[in-house]
Amino acid sequence: MRLVLRLTCLLVLMAAPLRAQELASLAADSVSIAGNDTLVAQGNVEIFQNGKRLKASSITYDRGADRLLISGPIVLTDDSGTIVLADQAELTSNFSDGILHSARLVLDQQLQMAASEMMRIGGRYTSLSNTVASSCKVCASNPTPLWEIRAKRVVHDRQERQIFFENATFRVAGVPVFWVPRLRIPDPTLKRQTGFLAPSYSTNSGLGFGVKVPYFIRIGDSKDLTVTPFISSNNARSVALRYRQAFDTGRIEMTGALSEDQLKPGETRGYLTALGSFNLPRDFTLSFSGIVISDKSYLSDYSISSADRLESWVEVTRTRRNEYISGKLVNYRSIRDGDVNSTLPSIVTDVTYQRRFSPGTIGGEGGFKLQTHSHYRSSNIATDSDGDTISDGRDVARLSMTADWRRNWVLPGGVLAAAMTEIDGDFYKIREDAVYAGDSFRGAGGAGVELRWPWVRAAQNGVSHVIEPVVQLVYADQSSSNIPNEDSTLVEFDESSLFSMSRFPGADEIEIGPYANIGLGYTRYDPAGWSLGLMVGRVLRSSNNLQFSNLSGLRGTQSDWLAASRLSIANGLSLTNRLVFDPNFKLTKGEMRMAFDRGTYGLSSTYMRLLADETESRDDPVSELSLAGRYQLNPSWEANMNARYDFVADRAAAAGLNLAFRNECLKVDMTLSRQFTSSSSVSASTSFGLSVDLLGFGGKAKGGPAAACSG
Length: 711
Description:
By secondary structure, the chain is mainly β.
């Protein structure tokens, strides 16, 4: 029968009382006392003390020498996740000092170090001789790890969480790659440490072959700085900086770079961004983002971003159950060819207060919105000199108020009825425009009723069908005004806007009636795990008010037909299709999306077709196919691809390939991308990138921040 003794070894051998922190639990198959100074425990021995657990075959405690003689196999663990394995050991009673033979040290279940001899010193240091360190799995069938560090001596500082190597050789698949006399790396439990990060490599048709070697600087517990030098074979030199700081109520992050290269000889190029968010009193949130660049092509040349219109903004918001408040200041800068920033709205302000409520007298749900908007152009030309139908210097300020109400009823026979109304008032102040300059007020209002009659049929096999005809009758009108349309030129006609009192996205235009929105929907739910949804509809008007463009699908007394479908299958396949076509079945707009996800592989695609429409600033038609796919080759390898083809130009627009490898000890990421389009500021380019990370240091194997190392 196994003996379990709730006492320390010292308690067995000494009559003096002990402090609470010295108490231990001993479990063994047999326990005996030899003489007055020696305790012997044999058979499945376990000792628990101060978060440490020791398992061994036998333990002999010598009180005079305060030593434990331990026979293995030995397993020593503590509450930090450190595991020590050994064959033989001689330790002090609190396990803080001693020697272990044929030992292995495992840190945070990630990094293991095997040594012929291990010394524990003062409970803080662990010294290993003739050591092999790796975070790769090693087994009898594959004794050579993917990578390893062999060193004459290794010291682990538990307090500082650092590992020091002396006379170290780095090996890949058993082959020596390089040697360093001294090397320091953080142990897996340390997330932030000053030192070098893993380098990355890239090849660019403009910059050539380049190397980045980031250096991480830990400034404190809540802030850090990363400095990343970059050099390339085409004489490009660059240094990038990233500064991060966390506060009690928020965080900030700033990134930037300065570069010199042969793409623009003699120029110093660069960029700077700032991003942050803070919690303010009374549930408000402050957010901001900003970017400045030296020239139009810098972001593309250095593969930083593909954005061609840059946005800097600061915003204060608060969102509650029935209330939304927002104040936003935005600065836009275009880097597109042909855009002139002085004639574009470069400074935009928006302040919005919105609230929902339930009127007790009439029931239903009501809403109120108060909004101010302004945009400013730096040009002072009051006419249109660039042919875009907008005055070059037009500045606009607007104050808008909107009140709306809706109530639903269930009528006999299962008919769903609703009544709705909306009232708008807008005051405009326009400057530097020869046509629209001055002050204008516009009042608008509308009311409507909606009838839905869902027909439901459930079959014996569990399949259910729902057919729902919908009719919405709306009358809306507005007072005459002299207001230009700038924010409502792009109108989307789809299933989400079919039953709407106004399909204009902004405030400059309000749809007037009377008109009828009609549609028919069908949905099938199958217990096998798939569903099908169909929607067909159009808009009927009493007269053509000439508010919409020819190719919007909404022009005339009878709009084009809208047809939308959605198919979802349990095996991970989903199809979505949306078409807008005229009565002669001529396609105006079309979009089809497909997604297929089966765990180990996936594929998605989008095809879009739009006819040219000057009203929507689309001089050429659009016919484009986008593809994206992934394939899990095995548990360690994954391949990803993406491509975009322009059928109008009859050429590929972009393509990319990513091949990633990851196991318990190594992460490799390889990317190949090609940008086919070019302009006077951005050239077509091909880029190749490679990054290699050794996992198991600084918590990276568990998905934490990148570790630092220095030597």
